[in-house]
From TrEMBL:
Subunit comment: Homodimer.
Isomerase recorded as keyword: yes
Lineage: Bacteria, Bacillati, Cyanobacteriota, Cyanophyceae, Acaryochloridales
Protein name: dTDP-4-dehydrorhamnose 3,5-epimerase
Name of the gene: rfbC
Enzyme Commission code(s) on record: 5.1.3.13
């Protein structure tokens, strides 16, 4: 597998080895030893799978008391996947990175704890799968508005389909008092 560092330290793009022939293909979507050797030392405790229609935008989500690291991938369709550094005091605070993930390119993205995460669907539908390093806690879920001008995320869609909850998410400036503090050991 090929691991690509992004402009946000800790956020990684993974290109797994794909073995193809006339019958189809095979790839490993996770191998603890290889991922640990590549800097992803999370113990994942929950796997999730969502299917979303074209134009759907989910996010930008995070948890405060139980921050989740996420290893994300798309098995069918295509999404634009985004990670945003939300750690107060981080030299990368408020910066984002996006990557196109699809069932064709088989890329994965690792989003560490301390980052908000979201994606938008570019294909007719997309099956989005992700491993989480902590359990989902609906009482702890927070989020940042997808269109916060302070973040200036260059989403490839203009009028996304949002849940009521995601449409009401606050801007980053409204969350400053509750965001996690950055520690130098996190770079």
């Amino acid at each position: 597998m090929n691991v690509i560092e992004t402009p946000l330290p800790g956020v990684l793009v993974i290109e797994p080895r794909v073995f193809s022939d006339q019958r189809g293909f095979f790839l490993e979507t996770y191998h603890r030893q290889r991922y640990t050797a590549s800097g992803i030392d999370e113990i994942f405790v929950q796997d999730n799978h969502s299917r979303s229609a074209h134009g759907t935008l989910r996010g930008l989500h995070f948890q405060l008391k139980s921050p989740q690291g996420k290893l994300v991938r798309v098995s069918a369709g295509e999404v634009f996947d985004v990670a945003v550094d939300i750690r107060r005091g981080s030299p990368y605070f408020g910066q984002w990175f996006g990557e196109y993930l699809s069932g064709e390119n088989n890329k994965q993205m690792y989003v560490p704890p301390g980052f908000a995460h979201g994606f938008c669907v570019l294909s007719e539908t997309a099956d989005f799968m992700y491993k989480c390093s902590d359990f989902y806690d609906p009482t702890d879920e927070q989020g940042v508005a997808w269109d916060d001008p302070a973040l200036a995320i260059d989403w490839p869609i203009d009028q996304p389909i949002l849940s009521k909850k995601d449409a009401a998410l606050p801007k980053m400036s409204e969350l400053m008092d509750c965001l996690p503090r950055f520690a130098m050991s996190q770079v």
